Amino acid sequence: MMSPASMTEDFIATDEPVHGLQRLVARFGGHAYDPHRHETYAVGHTLWGAQAFRYRGSDRISVRDECMVIHPDEVHDGHAGVPEGFSYRMLYIEPWLVCRALGRDRLLPFVPEVVERDAALAALIDDAFADFPYPMELLQADAFISDVAAHLARRSDDAGLQRVAALPVDEVAVARSFLTEEFDRQVTSGDLERITGLDRFELSRAFRRLIGTSPHRYLVGRRLAHARSRMAAGEGLAEAAAASGFADQSHMTRHFRARFGITPGRFATLASASQA
Description:
CATH architecture of the largest domain: Sandwich
Shape: globular
Helix content: 40-55%
CATH class of the largest domain: Mainly Beta
Strand content: 15-25%
CATH topology of the largest domain: Jelly Rolls
Structural class: alpha+beta
Number of strands: 9
Largest sheet: 9 strands, antiparallel
């Protein structure tokens, strides 16, 4: 557990995604993130201090031992809510895996209480960090996703109980796999129509209901994950952008800040500090 004396410098540490799951631990003494949104669920546990943020039109705060559940594509920011700052653990989970864990005929669960003292969820999160930063084993990742999906479903509002058997689940799975594999090139709606057999607008609607975001935002998310991994390993920003399918560094920077709430340069500096 962090103490105020140990929270003198901001830092971020992440691992490589395993089976649609990525872990992050960070601490900040003041401003942390500009408004941004993820294409994943963000499930976190505040370890020390107080993390303040704006979410769905309201100011929220998570203090020590409270948990956060942020739904895909919901705009939020982040800053310290007390002078000593805050530290937290966060897991980013692909919504598609939550759907799979709950069964093919369920919509994504929406948890209305974004901040709650939830001992069971905190224990799940802490267990996922037991070997951090060593990679999670695939069996561990599968078990965690299953447990968290069930937990989110129990805390969800009524919308999460709707049945969606009529949606083209298999076709969306094909599109998602294609975008994951082809993230570093230009992908068109025609490409997705050809491999799924669905009209582009039908696919877009189904993709959002099952994945939590649009096909384009999912594609950009794959590019950003690849770029962030390369930057965390010490690669330059321009090189990471070129290797990840972005037109140039400024193109990557615009999307990176919108997705993560910080610039690529600041992320690289914080990631470097965590390894010092």
